[in-house]
Amino acid sequence: MDAITALQTRTASPRLVEPAPSANELDTILKAGLRAPDHGMLRPWRFLIVAGDARAKLGQLFAVQMEPQTEEQTKKLLNAPLRAPLIIIAVAEIQDHPKVPAVEQICATAAAVQNMSVAIHALGYSSIWRTGAPAFHTGVKEALGFNARDEIVAFLYIGTPTLADRPVPENAVADYVKEWG
Prior knowledge:
By secondary structure, this protein is α+β, with helices and mostly antiparallel strands. The chain is built from six helices and five strands, in the order H-E-H-E-H-H-E-H-E-H-E.
């Protein structure tokens, strides 16, 4: 699939199953992420790969750190990582820099996630980008090996979609663009 087609046809898939990308395909996906724009070439992004039994371990981490108040909340946290056979956790590891504020480092990491999402689609798989309360919880970040000031930008769930491609509404460019000046 060519780049323009991939960019214009990518959609999110809420239900994902095996197969997930192979190790070689995952390498291709990650390389696409590493080509994201990055002011100052700080390379703030870090990626954790979660697959197999590690997904249940991640659910346990969520349940312990988030301290749910009900059985329903606990079940939701435990099952969240089981939504797909593969997860890439994208984290912006914030660096002090006189010209590159934290927001730009977060944006660079988000751009890397977008690149990976398009690469996933181009390879014939699908994904959905999620965050939710665990992404913003200091205990979760620290349990994953990051600092409180770092930002989890995405839990990128990856696999094979169970539903046919969802129709994507066409967006009229004119609805979002104005000429200035």
